[in-house]
Specification:
single chain, globular, Growth Hormone, Chain: A, 2 domains, mainly alpha, two-stranded antiparallel ribbon
């Protein structure tokens, strides 16, 4: 646990880091393996524009609830089992998608593959177990930033692989190969890692089904913060209805189902946290849910805006500067490429300085970055527009790194659930910003993100700096203290 942080080592905790970021890389590679091959898929099935858009929406729809569910499972059963299972399941679904013979099967497979987008949550708990509080920000940043690059790697490699495999069906074989790699790595991962260093305890939630909270106020706060997760799914349903792929009756049925699931979630939360109604949580075992809420908001802004901007930026460059589609795509890809450096940097800065001040300053930079992007127009030199975009991207992804530098320091036994909720809020942010983009032009779109980031910076003023130690209760009832600074 106390060995030196040597990125080029493949022993001990560094071995776990490298094996785990690669697992995340593969999940993102599989999650977005359809995007660069969509033209071939459209040609094979003769898809309409609406059907293509539906596939893109279905790919992210399941990820929101999946991150919550995976967060609970990883806290209960450990990251080794859950990551391996997710990779094997995702690889199998890849084969289902690759060799689907109807649009209905293709759409179902893409919807189910959204579950693999929850893989990110698992590694947050794994890295949090293996790295000390002084290193966890950098380690989580490397895990998140390098793993996130999987989507860009898919875009760079799969079209060429499909071409080499030949014919109109080359896309099927390319996607199938990515699934086989995922399943194979799932087996390898299971036999190559352990949930904790030797001699360490893996703390599990006392109750399952909902997140534990520490006070009556936090219980109602937690219930309130669950609501946007369901509203985002309702918005996705509305989008599919607008595309003509759901009838009004089907949509109303889904809305009713979401309402019933939310009510069930509140019931489960009350059952898990019945003790807070009597004030029975010992002082040493308490944490403040506002810490989770602020991290949710920060990730809503940072990762949510990243997903939204990556979706529209190539067309923005093409229309604003009259570029070719290829050139616009290359320039816009720089936004995602910054993940390799910026996310680890955000975690490193958080480790070295105040975690609260780091997050505040990065959100301020993010806000100013989008404010600057809102001013870009065709009169700008192209190089200056690209530089402004890259600078904004740095603050976006550094903020993501700073958020997950804090997640493992809130409450160790709930790290998976906290990471799941925070990660889900990133997807909620993407749905929110992309929905807003359908009503406004690009300049106002960037300005909306800038203003929301400023609001997030103000909210972060109420974040409490992790200090000293957190308490966790061992199975035999004794209390163990864990360093958080």
């Amino acid at each position: 646990m106390h060995e030196r942080f040597n990125l080029f080592s493949f022993h001990g905790k560094m071995r776990i880091l490298h094996l785990t970021w690669l697992a995340f890389f593969i999940t993102f590679f599989v999650w977005f393996n359809h995007a660069p091959l969509m033209a071939s898929i459209r040609e094979t099935f003769g898809l309409t524009e609406q059907q293509v858009k539906a596939l893109l929406i279905l790919n992210v729809a399941l990820t929101i609830p999946a991150r919550i569910i995976i967060g609970m499972l990883v806290d209960r059963f450990g990251p080794k089992r859950i990551y391996s299972s997710l990779l094997i399941l995702g690889g199998s679904l890849c084969l289902f998608f690759a060799y689907a013979d109807t649009y209905q099967k293709l759409a179902l497979a893409r919807f189910l593959l959204g579950f693999i987008g929850a893989g990110f949550v698992i590694g947050i708990r794994m890295i949090g177990e293996w790295f000390s509080a002084r290193e966890v920000g950098l380690a989580e940043g490397i895990y998140g930033g390098w793993g996130n690059f999987g989507s860009a790697a898919a875009a760079m490699t799969l079209p060429s692989l499909a071409y080499l495999l030949g014919g109109e069906e080359g896309w099927r074989h390319a996607i199938a190969i990515s699934g086989i790699i995922a399943a194979g790595y799932g087996i390898l991962y299971f036999f190559s890692v352990s949930d904790t260093p030797k001699g360490s305890t893996y703390f599990k939630p006392k109750r399952s089904g909902a997140m534990e909270v520490s006070s009556l106020f936090d219980f109602f706060f937690y219930c309130l913060w669950n609501l946007p997760l369901y509203l985002a799914l309702a918005v996705l349903t509305w989008k599919l209805t607008g595309l003509g792929l759901l009838t009004a009756a089907s949509a109303h049925g889904i809305y009713l189902l979401l309402g019933l699931i939310y009510a069930l979630q509140i019931y489960r939360a009350a059952h898990v946290n019945h003790h807070v109604f009597n004030g029975e949580v010992p002082e040493f075992d308490r944490y403040k849910f506002k810490q989770v809420a602020i991290l949710n908001l920060a990730y809503f802004i940072s990762f949510g805006s990243e997903l939204a901007v990556v979706s529209m930026l190539p067309l923005f460059f093409k229309d604003t500067f009259g570029l070719s589609q290829v050139m616009a795509g290359m320039l816009a890809s720089g936004f995602a490429f910054m993940n390799l450096l910026a996310r680890p940097m955000g975690g490193l800065i958080s480790d070295r300085f105040s975690r609260k001040r780091t997050l505040i300053l990065l959100l301020a930079g993010l806000s100013l970055g989008y404010l600057l992007m809102s001013q870009i127009n065709g009169s700008w030199p192209l190089a200056l527009a690209v530089a402004a975009t890259m600078a904004c991207s740095f603050f976006v992804q550094a903020t993501e790194g700073a958020v997950f530098a804090l997640v493992p320091l809130v409450k160790r036994r709930l790290t998976g659930q906290i990471a799941g909720m925070t990660g889900a809020y990133g997807n909620v942010g993407a749905v929110t910003y992309l929905t807003a983009y359908t009503f406004v032009d690009a300049h106002l779109f960037f300005l909306i993100i800038a203003l929301s980031a400023f609001a997030g910076m103000v909210a972060t003023l109420f974040l409490e700096e992790p200090k000293g130690q957190m308490a966790e209760v061992l199975p035999d009832g004794t209390v163990q203290m864990i360093e958080v600074e």
